[in-house]
Amino acid sequence: SGRRLVCKVAVLNCTMALRGLKVVEMAGLAPAPFAGMILADFGASVVRVDRPNQPPLDTLARNKRSIAVSVKQPAGVKTVRDLCSQADVLIEPYRPGVMEKFGLGPETLLGANPKLVYARLTGFGQSGTLAHKAGHDINYLATSGVLSMLGRKNENPFAPINLLADFAGGSLTCVIGILMALFERTRSNKGQVVDSAMVDGCAYLGSFLLASRKLGLWTGPRGTNMLDGGAPFYDTYKTSDGKYMSVGAIEPQFYQRLLEGLAVTDEDSPSQLDQTQWDEMKKRFAEIFATKTQKEWTRIFSKLDACVEPVLTMEEAFEHPHNRERQTFQKTDAGGSYETMPAPRLDRTPAKPGDEGSQPAP
Length: 362
What we know:
The protein is of the alpha/beta class and 362 residues long. The protein is built from 14 helices and twelve strands. The strands form three sheets. The chain has a seven-stranded parallel beta sheet with strand order 6-5-4-1-2-3-12, sandwiched between helices. The chain has a three-stranded antiparallel beta sheet with strand order 7-8-9, covered by helices on one side. Strands 10-11 form a two-stranded antiparallel sheet.
């Protein structure tokens, strides 16, 4: 109808949420580029400052422009200062003191542009005993205390790739800090420094782990608790074709449907929360899951609200009906490459993934 057409055109022509926001991103490894990409996806104009004569390592460069500048030369420092004098946000990923060494510290840049939000994204932060020490995701996760809680029973702590510290405790927390500083600026008309440390971010992410100890969720050693692989109803199980199913049947009603799908009767199973029987039940569930393929189990549990889903490879996730309907991933070229779509979804001012890769800044 005409009304639907008008609504559709209105959405297509809408202003993106961060349109008009100017961001300067100093080139670095994955956390800072992801923070810059989030802002760019939602409409910010992001210029990445690359080192000259070095291939960019930024694989999270969509919607960005780039410029090659040597901040070891006076002309390069002037270029960055000029960019920041007109910018709303600066993202820098270096250890404390590096930007000051180049004459690009907060006092200098905020002195020239008092409205600038100066975001410093590092592992250990701008202060503290470890502030000047090198590290990576696993080290920041370890220092936060969270790593000690991740892993199987009687095995070493296990870091889940580099997602928690680099991207959750780092990039996302940094973006939250930037957006809060920008919101506060609408009242004070002033910028400020955002000290985003991955250790702090991981610890903050672990708020539930710490607070829920009182609920009895984390009373045992690593790998023996309800949500860390200790419970038979919250784990992954191998299928007969070498694939896996995820099980998260925490609530009693979902646990009953899990048993129904596995053809296990109440008489054959102990109480769900009887921890003395968890190891035995895990063995039993594993034996049952090993009797059918992932496809067969998916078909069985598609009819039951049991919190049981197949563990998909990335390639399978691209083609999953739910993800296709939601457009969670988007094809980038005829060769079949995919990229993630921005999240969350804004209904009136949606994000736009745009072109893959950064473009030269004018």
